[in-house]
Each structure stands twice: as structure tokens, then as C-alpha cells.
Design brief:
Chain lengths: 326, 434
């Protein structure tokens, strides 16, 4: 058991899979010699050599195109898009190529690759380098999407993503890289499509993802300590596939639900979950589902404004309290 | 072919299988009785609709299953064996018969939760919308209730109109329903706080010998419906004395001519039905936001049976002869005592007659059987002194009747007019024979 940063967990997760399977290769901008712009891939070049760990030119289309070609011809590439926002630059691969290749070739061409992206705000990077893009990628049938919130989940879900026969978008949160957590020794392999209940509670369910997970946990602590409201906190972890059993099971116990989303409000992942709850668990609801999100605005670079825009522990606390007490 | 628990009556949600007439492996013909079923109102035989072999039974004798549940599998000749697997073990009678009686503040979420999907669900491709729609979001009185509150109230057969909402904007939330349900389980509605709970009553009789009688479906239905009626229907009462000497003489004459005797009550039912038709505004029922008025008088007749009572309805009693009414009541009462009435035998009607005269009761007031607008409580015919037209005292057979009226439908003068018609018809009974 070791205390590991979220950042170091990325390198450990990739290394675990590269050591296990020599078909796993890793490519991206500044990921090799520099050890990654966020220093999340330090040491991989030294451990696995330049043939398997490759720096690329600044061209997201080239990175994903090369990754797809490698995947089609038998490798299991991991590609990095440094800032998740630049998924938009190489959207054709994401939308039209990766998710459809196996279907359109009747299984003759497979696309077993992983795209790591640095997602989310809180680091004062401004409107084009801070976005939460989960809903940009979760809408394509054929694409899987995970977003771990802790070091141990990074390692376990990385293994699951690399071993999955289909393309997986692996969403890392930039503002979590410095956080730490316990990671057991030895090989860790998790399962796609599983959520985790991080805190049990009886009054309401807070469903969170990525950086919103630690904030939801902190808000839940305060709500219990100051107001006696017992919150269950569910880390969604995997948006596609989605662990509806855990989510609906929790709603059936608490009867109230809040989604804590970093993305701008319109069509956020929480809207999809709330819609499923409305369909599946309508008669379990004892109050309206509430979505706590960033407003529908470009994220400001100003620290004060960015902190106001993204759901904070205080805002989660206030919103849950108001909804539960009104 | 899956054999389902039938729906007997709109408000019936579950049924108890009293006995299986067939077992797994038996061959049956269409029409053969498969099992005997008991709901809160009736017992009836359920026949097979097709020929085949019983290849599975999922609800055992004495067990209760919800309406629509698969109770057995009938495999027709040449049909592939069914792959139906019951979702869980059949509910035990203990848990299924007492959902209301158990106050369960903490355990409630576990007992009411929707069964979680047993197989992983692909939510992006399919969803399971609720199979049962519970009460509307807005009650007739304009109050709102959350979906969970509506489900809990629906399962507990609790009328949301009687639950006080404590949520935002007076919305009825789950806790309100649980509170009301606890009140009801201990015999008190939420509208009447301060009633004794089961624990309090038990404590009161600690040290005294008593037998605990569990509530059966009929007792629960009577308790719920009549408490609801007495608490929510604005009753008022009209009492009149009726001279029945002429009617008794006429009855005696008729009975000399008929093999089956007609009773005083048969005359009462006929006269009341005719009076209802002559007073159309009182021949009506309350329907929440409107009144339904009828052309013919369908009159319920209260029949005491073992463990309770039931009120089968004589349809269009105004059009039927006394002898016909008499034999119909006899036949319905017989079936009621055997708990073989069908929902269509006791549903509907606009008024009822309840007669306790045969027990020597002089007079009493009855509780209206919703949605009826009136009920006539009939006492015993007794020889009483009355003033004759010439001022002298003589004896006549007098019968005291009490008409309970729902003031939402029947006002005082209207009720009095109905009563006057009834009294006149019974005192001059030849008209009832026409």
C-alpha cells in the first residue's frame, strides 16, 4: 500500500499495462522526454524506450489518426490529448471513426485504443483549456467513457480501458493531479461500467464525477455535521457504460437525488442520469431531482469568477440544504 | 400460457389463493376450475380458459399475489415449455397481509423500494417505465403529492385527500403518508391526531385476558371505507315513524298466494326504490367535482355475513316486482354468505337499505356507503299507541326509519321529500304492486 498522487497513478497505470502487454504503446505531445505537460507520464520513456513511448508533433488529428491505424493493425495504443478541449480538433476520429469501425466492418476491424484527456477547470486556464467535455464524447454509440476521481481508480480503470476491445475515452481531471490517495501494491484491474458508493447515507444521494467527487464528499460531511442531513455519495466513474443499478438502488433508498456536475448545464451528463431516474425510479422520488452545475457560460480565466462558476463545496451545501429543508 | 392473478374490481390490488383444485402435471380442459381466489370482497373460482397441462404453480395455497402476477403456467399441447421464472419467492402471507398494520418508520425505505433491476440494464437503449400509475400528481382538492408519496399511499390504499402535506407549498411527501398510515393502522386517521396507537391500547389491557384477531381483507375494507365515510361525508339524519299495518296485511295476503314468502324488507326496498325515482335529485351520487343523477334506482341491501357485512345491489329495483326483489335478495344474500359475490354484484348503486328490525332494534342511524348519497336504517315494527283521527288512542304497528343523507348531494328539504314519498308508499302499499 502506498500513498500516490493522481498524477503518479497515471504513470503507474500505464506502466502496469505496458509491462504486461508489449502491444501497448503510448503517444502524445510532450509525453515522452518531458514526462508530460502535467508530469503525469514521468519515467515511461526510460522504462519502455522510444519505440513504445513516442512524442508527437502538435497535431491532435495526427495523434488520433496514428493511434487508430496502430489499433487497426494489432497494437493497443494509449493516446494523450493534452487538453480535453482539443478533442474538438480531432472530432472526426471520436465521432465517426473509432466508434463505428467495428460495427461497419462487421467486426473485421477493431479499434482497441485509449484516449487520455486532461479535463476540467479550476486551474485558471481560461475558456479554451478548462472545459468539462464528458458530454462531447458520451453521446456516440460505440465509444466508452470513464472519468476516475482517485489514484486507485486511475490505475484500475486504466487497466480496464486498455484491456477493453473497444475505444475508451479516459478522462483525467487536471485539478486532481496533485491529490493523493492510497493505492494497493501489485496489479490493479477495475471494471468499466461500475460506479462506487463512497459514502452511505439515508436522506439523499449526491451523484458526482471527477473533481466534483471530493467536493460532494466534503459537502456531505458538512451537511451531516452541521445540519444532520445524511447524504449518500456516488462516484459515477463510468459514464458509458453506466452503472444504473448502483444509481437507481441508491435513489430507491434515499428518495432524493442531486447531480453534481462540472460541465455547463445544458445537456450535461447529469441530465441523462436524471432522465433515467425519471423513467425508472419515478415512484421512488420524494422530491424533484436537482442538478448542480456550472452555468451555461464560457469558463472565465479570472480565479474569482472561475471559482464562482464551478460548483463549490459551499454551493453544493447550500443547494442541498435548501432543497431538503424547503 | 401464463395464468395471471385476475383483477376483481377496480380497487382490488391483490388476491389470496384459498385453494388449488389442480396440481402440477394435471391435464385440464377449458372451464375446469383451477383455483379458488379470495379478495377483500369476494371468493370465486377461477377456471382455465384453454385446455392443456399445468406445468408450474408459483403461488401456493394461502399465499397472496398482486393483480397481474403469474400464478401458474398452462402449457397447451404442442406448445414449447414456458421459460417463465418467478421473480422472487412468492410473498409470504405474513408480510403480504399486514402491510398497513406494521408501523415501520425506519424500515420503510427497504420495504417499499422498487425492485432493483436483476439483470444489468442498458439504460441508453431501453428503460422500464412504471407498470402501475399511482394517483395523479394533484388531488381533487388541489394539493400536490410527490411520486413516492403517491406510490406509498396507493400501496396502503390511503386517500391522499386525507393526508396533510408538510413539504414545500404544502406538498404531500412520503413522511406525511407514513405518518397518516401509522395513524390509520392504530385506528386513527391523520386528521384526528392523539388517537391511541396499537401499543397504547395493548398497554391499556395489560394483564387482561384477550384474544387478538388479525384483520382480514373484509375487516380492513370496512374499517377504511366507513371511517372515511363518517369522517369525510357530511351526514345528517331524518327520522320518521311509518304505520305498516296496511303493508303487513297486504304481505300476508301475498304470502298466502306465493310459495316463497316476501319479507317486510322486500317492501321497504321496493318502496324506497320508487321514492328515489320520484325524487330524482336524491337518486344521485357525489363524484368529487360533480353529481351523477340516475334514472333508475339501484339499491344496495346490507347483508350481515360471518366476519362482516356486504351490500349487494338490486339493479333497477323500481322496475321489479316485490316477489322478484325478494328472490333476488335471497339469492344474493346466500352468495354473500358463501363469499361468492362478484364485483358487479356489489358495486354501484345510489342508496342502501340496512335493516336491523329482526333483532328488535327500534331505531338506529347508519353510515353512508360511499359514493351513495343516502342510506335508510330500518327498525323493528312494533305495536305502539297512536292517536286515531277521531282523537282516541289505538294501537298500530309502527316502524321507525332513519335516513342518513350526504349533505353535499341531498339537502334537508330534498331528503325530507324523499322520506315523505317513502312513508306514503309504505303506508299505502298498493302502489308498490303496480
Amino acid at each position: 500500500m502506498a500513498q500516490l498522487t493522481y498524477r503518479d497513478a497515471v504513470a503507474r497505470g500505464i506502466a502496469q499495462e505496458m509491462a504486461r502487454d508489449e502491444d501497448v504503446v503510448f503517444l502524445g505531445e510532450d509525453i515522452a522526454k518531458a514526462g508530460g505537460v502535467f508530469k503525469a507520464t514521468v519515467g515511461l520513456l526510460e522504462q519502455f524506450g522510444p519505440l513504445r513511448v513516442r512524442d508527437t508533433p502538435i497535431s491532435e488529428q495526427a495523434i488520433l489518426g496514428a493511434a487508430m491505424g496502430a489499433a487497426m493493425t494489432g497494437l493497443k495504443p494509449i493516446a494523450e490529448i493534452m487538453f480535453a478541449d482539443f478533442i474538438a480538433v480531432c472530432y472526426d476520429y471520436i465521432a465517426n471513426e473509432f466508434p463505428k469501425s467495428r460495427y461497419m466492418t462487421n467486426g473485421q476491424v477493431k479499434c482497441p485504443l485509449v484516449v487520455r484527456v486532461g479535463n476540467g477547470g479550476g486551474a485558471r486556464f481560461g475558456a479554451q483549456h478548462s472545459q468539462s467535455i464528458e458530454n462531447w464524447v458520451m453521446q456516440f454509440p460505440g465509444l466508452k467513457v470513464v472519468a476516475p476521481s482517485s489514484p486507485v481508480d486511475i490505475v484500475g480503470l486504466m487497466a480496464a480501458a486498455v484491456r477493453d476491445p473497444d475505444p475508451v475515452i479516459f478522462i483525467e481531471h487536471k485539478s486532481l493531479y496533485a491529490t493523493t490517495g492510497e493505492v494497493p501494491d501489485g496489479e490493479i484491474v477495475d471494471t468499466l461500467g461500475t460506479a462506487k458508493i463512497l459514502r452511505t447515507g439515508s436522506d439523499c444521494t449526491l451523484i458526482a464525477l471527477g473533481m466534483m467527487v471530493p467536493r460532494a464528499l466534503a459537502a456531505a460531511e458538512r451537511l451531516q455535521a452541521e445540519e444532520g442531513i445524511s447524504c449518500e455519495v456516488v462516484d459515477v466513474r463510468s459514464l458509458v457504460p453506466l452503472d444504473t443499478q448502483t444509481i437507481l438502488g441508491s435513489v430507491a433508498r434515499t428518495h432524493r437525488v442531486f447531480t453534481i456536475e462540472e460541465n455547463p448545464r445544458v445537456l450535461g451528463w447529469g441530465a441523462e442520469i436524471v432522465s433515467i431516474i425519471a423513467d425508472e425510479a419515478f415512484y421512488d422520488l420524494d422530491g424533484p431531482p436537482v442538478r448542480i452545475t456550472t452555468p451555461n457560460i464560457p469558463l472565465p480565466a479570472s480565479d474569482i469568477l472561475e471559482d464562482l462558476a464551478i460548483p463549490s463545496v459551499g454551493r453544493i451545501f447550500e443547494t442541498v440544504l435548501r432543497s431538503m429543508r424547503s | 400460457m401464463e395464468i395471471l392473478m385476475p383483477q376483481l374490481g377496480e380497487t382490488v390490488t391483490e388476491g389470496k389463493i384459498v385453494g388449488w383444485h389442480r396440481k402440477v402435471g394435471d391435464k385440464v380442459e377449458a372451464g375446469d376450475v383451477l383455483f379458488e381466489l379470495e379478495t377483500d370482497k369476494v371468493t370465486m373460482d377461477v377456471p382455465a380458459t384453454l385446455a392443456g397441462e399445468i406445468t408450474g404453480i408459483f403461488v401456493n395455497e394461502g399465499d397472496i399475489a398482486p393483480v397481474g402476477a403469474v400464478v401458474a403456467i398452462l402449457t397447451q399441447e404442442g406448445e414449447a415449455p414456458s421459460t417463465y421464472v418467478p421473480p422472487t419467492a412468492a410473498p409470504s402471507p405474513a408480510t403480504a397481509t399486514q402491510p398497513v398494520a406494521v408501523p415501520s418508520p425506519a424500515a420503510a425505505p427497504a420495504t417499499v423500494s422498487t425492485p432493483s433491476p436483476s439483470a444489468p440494464l442498458d439504460p441508453y437503449n431501453s428503460v422500464r417505465t412504471p407498470e402501475r400509475i399511482f394517483a395523479p400528481a394533484r388531488t381533487a382538492t388541489g394539493r400536490h403529492a410527490t411520486p413516492l408519496a403517491r406510490r406509498l399511499a396507493g400501496l396502503a390504499e390511503l386517500d391522499l385527500a386525507r393526508v396533510t402535506g408538510t413539504g414545500p407549498h404544502g406538498r404531500i411527501v412520503a413522511q406525511d403518508v407514513r405518518d397518516a398510515e401509522r395513524g390509520q393502522a392504530s385506528g386513527t386517521a391523520s386528521a384526528m391526531p392523539g388517537g391511541a396507537s396499537r401499543e397504547q391500547v395493548l398497554a391499556l389491557y395489560k394483564g387482561t385476558d384477550f384474544t387478538e384477531i388479525p384483520l382480514d381483507g373484509m375487516r380492513k375494507t370496512i374499517a377504511r371505507r366507513l371511517q372515511e365515510s363518517k369522517q369525510t361525508v357530511p351526514h345528517f339524519y331524518l327520522v320518521a315513524d311509518v304505520n305498516i299495518d296496511a303493508m303487513l296485511a297486504l304481505r300476508q295476503e301475498i304470502n298466502l298466494a306465493l310459495p316463497e314468502k316476501v319479507s317486510v324488507n322486500d317492501f321497504v326496498v321496493k318502496a324506497f326504490a320508487m321514492a328515489l325515482v320520484r325524487t330524482p335529485a336524491a337518486n344521485a351520487v357525489w363524484a368529487s367535482d360533480r353529481i351523477l343523477q340516475f334514472q333508475h334506482a339501484d339499491v344496495g341491501v346490507a347483508v350481515a355475513i360471518d366476519g362482516g357485512l356486504i351490500t349487494p345491489v338490486i339493479r333497477q329495483a323500481n322496475t321489479k316486482g316485490i316477489a322478484a326483489i325478494s328472490s333476488e335478495i335471497r339469492e344474493l344474500a346466500e352468495r354473500a354468505r358463501n363469499r361468492k359475490l362478484l364485483p358487479q354484484d356489489y358495486q354501484g348503486g345510489s342508496a342502501s337499505v340496512s335493516n336491523l328490525g329482526m333483532y328488535g332494534v327500534r331505531e338506529f342511524s347508519a353510515i353512508i356507503n360511499p359514493p351513495h348519497a343516502t342510506i335508510l336504517a330500518v327498525g323493528a315494527g312494533m305495536r305502539r299507541p297512536i292517536e286515531a283521527p277521531d282523537g282516541s288512542v289505538r294501537f298500530a304497528t309502527m316502524m321507525t326509519v332513519t335516513l342518513s343523507c350526504d349533505h353535499r348531494v341531498v339537502d334537508g328539504a330534498l331528503g325530507a321529500s324523499l322520506m315523505a314519498d317513502f312513508k306514503k308508499l309504505l303506508e299505502q302499499p298498493l302502489a308498490t304492486l303496480l
